[in-house]
Design a protein that fits this description.
The structure holds 2 protein chains of 2 kinds.
Chain A lengths: L14 H5 L15 E7 L5 E7 L1 H4 L4 E6 H6 L31 E2 L5 E7 L2 H10 L1 E6 L6 H4 L15 E8 L1 H10 L2 E12 L8 E7 L4 E6 L4 H10 L9 E4 L15 H13 L3 E4 L2 H7 L3 E12 L5 E13 L27 E9 L13 H19 L3 H8 L6 E2 L5 E2 L4 H11 L5 H10 L3 E10 L7 H6 L8 E7 L5 E5 L8 H13 L6 E4 L17 H27 L7 E4 L2 E4 L5 E3 H10 L12 E6 L8 E11 L4 E12 L6 H21 L30 E5 L17 H18 L10 H11 L1
Parallel strand pairs in A: 1-12, 10-11, 14-15, 20-21, 27-28
Antiparallel strand pairs in A: 1-5, 2-4, 2-6, 3-5, 7-15, 8-13, 9-10, 9-12, 13-14, 16-17, 18-26, 19-20, 19-25, 22-23, 23-24, 26-27
Chain B lengths: L4 E4 L3 H10 L3 E4 L5 H6 L7 E4 L9 E4 L2 E5 L4 H5 L2 H6 L1 H8 L4 H6 L2 H7 L6 H7 L3 E4 L3 E3 H4 E3 L2 E2 L7 E7 L3 E8 L6 E9 L5 E6 L7 E2 L1 H9 L24 H18 L1
Parallel strand pairs in B: 1-3, 2-3
Antiparallel strand pairs in B: 4-5, 5-10, 6-7, 6-10, 8-9, 11-12, 12-13, 13-14
Classes of the chains: A alpha+beta, B alpha+beta.
The structure holds flavin-adenine dinucleotide.
Flavin-adenine dinucleotide binds next to β2, α2 and α7 of chain B.
Chain lengths: ~775, ~260
């Protein structure tokens, strides 16, 4: 590795602009004549709209236009769709209800958009929005998925009787039932995966610009995948054909999944720009974000894990009910199915697995992928079950895991996934050594003398990243392919631009992608620019989620670089009168191996563009593109250990230490990888200790609609993290990368919950383990 | 936020006059509560009268045991006052645990007391220290000042000028923070005067706002030690319940925080 190449902790190129306030986010964008939008939203969780009266609002100062759903429908703007088809076990397709970008018949959650007001200023738009009179016929609401399935509950969509969207299964039910029947021990547990609000630092925003002279639209938006946004808006929502719609996702301040989807506001602002004749900008405020950003998780599962007399797992049966909210968001159906149940084998060799998943409509904001997306739910379920089993069986939790690890690769699980490489024992050993697992008993005794209850817990996670082989996901119902694209454009003076279909919204692509190029060509990363986030500048791409940018996005760059290098070598061989196969690229030079003949990189680039002396028949220029479609998922894995002290008087949990031992395959920039793990663990600790979306079950009002009630993790809630890596390179992609963006959020919640339940001796604790709940559980246990 | 008129008052009289002359005038101090409420459009004063530049409302003075804190003194200034720390470190510690640095540099004691948020910290200190809320018109004893949730004895247009109290012999504040807002989910201020008089004031927990706990006061008057509180019962039925804490849990916290405050005093 060079100082700037693969493996170097290069300081992030993008940080100067972020840290000095020079980032350019959607809300920073301003165009001549731009006006401001405010959405009229439903204050009720469930109601029929009897009428919408805009007469008073229309005449308010500054108002340019007020538009409602009927007009949107008249203009043939499409309804919002879910892009992944799931079939129920009886073969019927999922029961998808209608999601109108602006509701005009029924509203189904607090915050459902009903009308858009465009005015000269945001204040005037808001004033007028308050004067829009919507007459509602309020209906009963239901917010809990389990309850929504019961008889006699409010019905959300006529398409989905009993609010059931689909009843899906995976694995071999008969074999699993047989294993349970024959088991020496069965561990049973019911687990709730709490509902989370994503809370990116930058709230969602969009700026829709219609150019009547060109009949062309431009959409600035807070998106993790601008090309997907364009595709969906043209193919499904009929906003404009792709060649008449440019989508730009400039700097984006975090997404965690919530900015994958196409929301009503983007569609409506583009359409409103045409209707009103002015560019329309909307930026959501924090409470609006709590109300309308897609939430994450919200599962209730019952688990049966069967063991033989030697404590080997022989079967796993899972029954999950997943809350999808009021409408099906873009990938909502994939999260509790193929992103979740396919990981239920964990790190273990389990011969029989069966999972049944029912997804349910409720009067809450839609639920979709949130950092980890399905995999945290699978890991939480498995790892709390493993810990519970170890306690019931009276064996060490480490030993029980070790005994059941998958040890030979490739390993075909009973739930689709084919694990290609890993060394689970290595991470377990490293984590236990780092945490001084063996010294725990002494620490517990010392804590007890201080009146504190000390506990330790572990979690061994696996996840599937590098999303995803296109044909495979196509066969499972995905509406898109999940390849990635890259174009490497070498300029005449040798500087380089890389257009990637990945999108950076905190991940540091501008640095790591440049490091890859620097490593290959030996040029400084300063001479490499990474271009992303603009459909006019970058060829079609699929964006960033599922820890895919390194494994898939960079692999596409590698393929394009291969082509660039091959052409550069041909030119260099021609100029130096050498054999092409003797040319090597090193330190920014093309050399004839074994001689002192060299040509600097920029001269070869210049030669490609002057085209005065190219090999016969060669086209001028040095620019190559590539599409990379992965052949498999990648499988990051690791072992997390958490040690806590509980104050029995107050129920407060203090995290004493947190150890993460991860296998991410090869690493481009260790500092950035550490940052990703830190952030992921912070979110996982947030889920386990603090965060919870709370809807009033009676009326569907969101109680946790601000930071007064929604507890985000703060720096002083977190310990220092002890990190290490035990990397086995990924065999399926050229860089051997597995992905690191979500692991922290996936592996940490069960480690923490296992530690707390160990400390207090009560396993019924649910996330978040707030002081009140821990105190109550402690008193119930004693 | 709805449009509003801003005025910067130069004196107490000026402020009172500006407020009285306005349609729906409101005093503005640190703005940490009022501006946020206006941004959410939950308040829409026609006029804001900014008090932060009135000399009479600024500064902390300590004369022997007698303390005066101007209404516009920020939480940061209370937390970091050496003079105050010398006679009543408990109130400095309390101020240091309000909100975050931004809030402490903007928010003021007068604003906090006038607002009487049931989860605010200062009301516990004022009640336990038997403080006087000095207004432009009169002095009001803390016990009479805090009248209910977000309710005070202030008349329309009446303005807090300062808080005064005599420094106690011993005092401490123990706060259990709400995990989300970090306001007090339960905060207990204990104080003992030279004459042996003991006060235990609880904030963040009472269904009607800040209150004194006479059982604890009697026990601590007899024996100023955490152990003295062992047998005391706190009745949950007088306490708040919300998604963060049941009244039973708050009752537990009242006792635990009281013990910790006594231990720290
Ligand atoms: C993020 C955050 C965290 C916080 N955490 C805490 C916490 O942990 N503990 C805590 O106690 N508080 C907390 N607060 C509240 C903070 O202490 C505020 O400063 C306080 O509630 C109001 O003080 P202010 O000076 O900002 O008053 P303002 O917001 O300016 O005014 C509040 C009210 O008092 C009135 N008022 C102001 N001054 C006077 C006066 N002199 N006479 C009469 N009426 C007056 C105003 O008209 C208004 O109605 C927090 C606030 C925020 C934003």
């Amino acid at each position: 590795m060079g100082v700037e190449g693969i493996g170097a902790s290069v300081a992030r190129k993008e940080d100067k602009r972020f840290l000095t306030g020079k980032g350019r986010y959607t809300d920073d964008m301003s165009v001549p004549g731009m006006k401001y939008a405010f959405f009229v939203r439903s204050p009720y969780a469930h109601a029929k709209i009897k009428s919408i009266d805009m007469s008073a609002a229309k005449d308010m100062p500054g108002v340019i236009g007020i538009l409602e759903g009927k007009q949107l429908q008249a203009d043939a703007i499409g309804n919002i769709i879910c892009g992944w088809m799931i079939h129920s076990k009886d073969g019927s397709p999922m029961n998808m209800g209608v999601w109108r970008p602006l509701a005009h018949e029924t509203v189904r959650y607090v915050g459902d958009a009903v009308a858009i007001v465009v005015a000269d200023s945001l204040g005037e738009a808001r004033d007028a929005a308050e004067a829009v009179v919507v007459d509602y016929d309020v209906l009963p609401a239901v917010t809990e998925a389990v309850k929504a399935l019961e008889a006699g509950q409010p019905q959300l969509h006529p398409e989905a009787p009993n609010n059931l969207i689909f009843d899906w299964q995976i694995g071999d039910g008969a074999a699993t039932d047989k294993a349970i029947a024959e088991a020496a021990h069965v561990t049973e547990i019911t687990l709730r995966n709490n509902r989370l609000a994503p809370n990116p630092m930058e709230p969602r925003a969009t700026l829709g610009i219609y150019d009547s002279a060109e009949d062309h639209y431009t959409c600035y938006t807070t998106s993790q995948n601008p090309h997907v946004a364009r595709l969906v808006m043209s193919a499904f929502y009929n906003v404009a054909p792709e060649n008449k719609l440019r989508v730009i996702a400039p700097d984006v301040g975090g997404g965690f999944g919530s900015k994958i989807y196409i929301y009503p506001e983007e569609i409506v602002c583009l359409w409103a720009s045409k209707k009103t004749g002015v560019p329309v900008k909307w930026t959501c405020d924090r409470t609006e974000a709590f109300l309308t950003d897609a939430h994450g998780r919200d599962h209730v599962s019952t688990v049966k894990m069967a063991f033989d007399k030697d404590n080997r797992i022989i079967g796993l049966k899972v029954d999950t009910i997943a809350n999808l909210g009021a409408y099906m968001s873009l990938f909502s159906s994939a999260v509790p199915t193929y992103l979740y149940a396919t990981l239920l084998s964990g790190q273990y060799a389990i011969p029989a697995i069966h999972a049944n998943v029912r997804t349910v409509y409720t009067n809450t904001v839609p639920v979709d992928a949130y950092r980890g997306a399905g995999r945290p739910e699978a890991t939480y379920l498995l790892e709390r079950t493993m810990e519970t089993a170890a306690r019931e069986l009276g064996v060490s939790p480490a030993e029980l895991r070790r005994q059941n690890f998958v040890r030979t690769f490739p390993y075909q699980t009973p739930v689709i996934m084919n694990y290609d490489a890993g060394d689970y024992e290595a991470s377990l050993e490293a984590a236990m050594a780092s945490a001084d697992w063996n010294g725990f008993a002494a620490r517990k005794a010392e804590a007890a003398r201080r009146g504190k209850k000390r506990g330790i817990g572990m979690s061994c996670y696996i996840e599937a990243c590098g999303i995803a082989p296109s044909a495979a996901v196509g066969s499972l119902g995905a509406g898109v392919g999940l390849w990635e694209s890259a174009e490497v454009r070498v300029n005449a003076v040798g500087t380089i631009e890389v257009m990637t279909g990945s999108h950076s919204h905190g991940q540091g692509h501008e640095t790591t992608f440049a490091q890859l190029v620097a490593d290959r060509l030996g040029v400084p990363i300063d001479s490499v620019n990474i271009v992303h986030g603009d459909t006019d500048k970058v060829q079609m791409g699929m964006g960033t989620y599922g820890s895919r940018s390194g494994a898939v996005g960079m692999s596409a760059v590698v393929k394009a670089l291969d082509k660039v290098e091959a052409k550069a070598k041909k030119i260099a061989a021609h100029l130096m009168e050498a054999d092409e196969s003797d040319i090597v690229i090193e330190n920014g030079e093309l050399k004839v191996a074994g001689t002192d003949k060299t040509l600097p990189w920029f001269q070869v680039a210049l030669a490609a563009y002057t085209a005065h002396n190219l090999p016969a028949g060669m086209e001028p220029g040095l620019k190559e593109g590539a599409f990379y479609d992965p052949s498999n998922f990648t499988f990051p894995a690791g072992c997390y250990i958490c040690e806590v002290e509980v104050d029995p008087e107050t129920g407060v949990t203090d995290i004493i230490q947190f150890v993460a031992a991860d296998d991410f395959g090869n690493i481009i920039n260790p500092m950035i990888v550490e940052g990703q793990v830190h952030g992921g663990i912070a979110q996982g600790i947030g889920q386990a200790l603090l965060e919870n979306v709370h809807y009033d079950p009676q009326n569907g009002q969101l109680i946790t609609a601000s930071y007064m009630d929604y507890a985000m993790p703060r720096a002083d809630d977190l310990p220092s993290f002890k990190l290490s890596h035990q990397n086995t390179p990924c065999p399926s992609n050229p860089l051997g990368i597995k992905g690191c963006g979500e692991a922290g959020a996936i592996g940490s919640p069960p480690a923490l919950m296992n530690a707390i339940t160990d400390a207090i001796g009560n396993n019924s604790l649910t996330m978040p383990a707030t002081p009140q709940k821990v105190w109550a559980a402690l008193n119930a246990a004693n | 936020m709805y449009a509003t008129n801003y005025h910067r008052a130069s004196s107490v009289q000026d402020a009172v006059k500006l407020q009285a002359g306005a349609d729906e005038g409101k005093y503005l101090s640190g703005g940490m509560t009022l501006i946020a409420t206006m941004k959410q459009r939950l308040a829409s004063p026609s006029d804001l009268v900014d008090l932060r530049h009135i000399p009479d409302l600024k500064g902390i003075s300590v004369n022997g045991k007698s303390v005066r804190i101007g209404a516009a003194v920020t939480h940061f200034d209370v937390a970091s006052s050496a003079e105050l720390k010398a006679v009543c470190p408990a109130i400095c510690d309390l101020a240091h645990h309000i909100g975050d640095p931004h809030v402490r540099h903007m928010g003021t004691i007068g604003g906090s007391v006038a607002n009487n948020d049931p989860a605010a910290d200062y009301p516990a200190a004022l009640l336990a220290l038997d403080a006087i809320v000095v207004t432009n018109a009169r002095g009001i004893k803390a016990a009479e000042f805090f009248t209910g949730l977000f309710e005070t004895a202030l008349e329309e247009g009446e303005m807090i000028v300062a808080i005064t109290f005599d420094a106690p012999q011993r005092a401490a504040y123990a706060k259990f923070r709400n995990p989300a807002s970090r306001y007090a989910m339960t905060g207990v201020f204990v104080a003992r005067r030279d004459n042996g008089d003991v006060r235990v004031a609880v904030t963040g927990a009472g269904a009607d706002g800040v209150f004194r706990h006479s059982g604890m006061e009697a026990a601590l008057a007899a024996n100023w030690s955490p152990d003295a509180l062992a047998g005391i019962a706190v009745n949950p039925s007088d306490l708040m319940a919300d998604i963060h804490a049941s009244s039973e849990y708050r009752a537990n916290l009242v006792k635990v925080m009281a013990k910790r405050a006594v231990a720290a005093s």
